[in-house]
Every structure is written in structure tokens, then in C-alpha cells.
Amino acid sequence: MQIGLFFGSFNPIHQGHLMLANYMLEYAGLQEVWFIVSPQNPLKDKKNLLAEQDRFDMVTKAIDEFPRFRAIDIEFHMPKPSYTIDTLVRLTERHPSHNFYLICGMDALQSFHKWKNYNQILGSCNILVYPRKDADGGQFSEHPSVKIVDAPQLEVSSSFIRKAISESKNVQFFLPHGVYQYIILKRFYL
Prior knowledge:
alpha/beta; six-stranded parallel beta sheet
């Protein structure tokens, strides 16, 4: 089975994440996309990061009616900070018959040399890369394990949504309905 691994803090998950995952299913030959909720990206600041369980619950609410998407909390049970290579090794051990494809943006590919054991990642799985404004992928864009996918560029971001909510803006159409309701109920990002 061809599985796309979409790592992220999902703080919060939004329609752009879902549209991109859907695009990868339909145009990149994947059977499923697994949303790997990361407790803490070692290359990002923890400021404004909701608790991992709240972010996982939002992902679950966002995808609960779509059977080809799965929410995965494997990194919650691993040493912190979590590193993609360690998660890939563990997933491969648990699911040896699956072929995993890492889904990332062109901006992440550009800083890929900063990832722990990036050469091992390149050797163990294919990487599906979606375009991002002001990023060209750097030295890895021509690597044989990397496939640039001509997905639509989506300008919505979690940081935009957090900021909008903190300013009391209504951004309900940027988020899955259940996620928006959960954020309002819990008073997140205020």
C-alpha cells in the first residue's frame, strides 16, 4: 500500500492541509494519507503551540468522515523532540508491507540538510514535494527520491488562522466545521 505521511504540528489543521492531502491522494498515486501529529518540531518555536492531544483531537475531527485519511499519534510515544527518521524507522517496522512517501513543502525541502539523518531519509522513502511561494527546494530538488508535485499553491497557514482568531476575526471557512467549533468551545488562540 502506498501511504503518504503528512507530518505537522497542525496548530490548527485547516482546509489547506486537507486540500493538499486530497490532491496527493488523487494525483500522486497514494492509497491513504496519514497525518502524523508532531508534539514538537525541533526546528520550530513552541510559542502558541497547543497541547499535543488537543491538536490530535482537531485532526481527528477534521478527517473523521474520510476513510482514506488517518490521524497518527506515534510521535507522542517517542522521545522528544521527535525526528522524522526515527518515526519512519518505527512505522516501517510496524508496517513492513507499506511503501511510505514523505509529504513536505518546497520550503521544508530547502532546509532538508538540517534534518537529522536526512541522507537516510532520502535512501529509505520517496518525498512528494508541493510548491511553496519563495522556495525552490535547494540542493535536493533534483534528487532521484524527490518528486515535485504540481499541486495548487495554497496561501492559508496555521499562523494566519491563529492570528486572526486572536484578533476576533471569523475564519470559519478556513477550517473544517468541527475544528472551528472545537476552537471556539475551548477558546484556543485568544
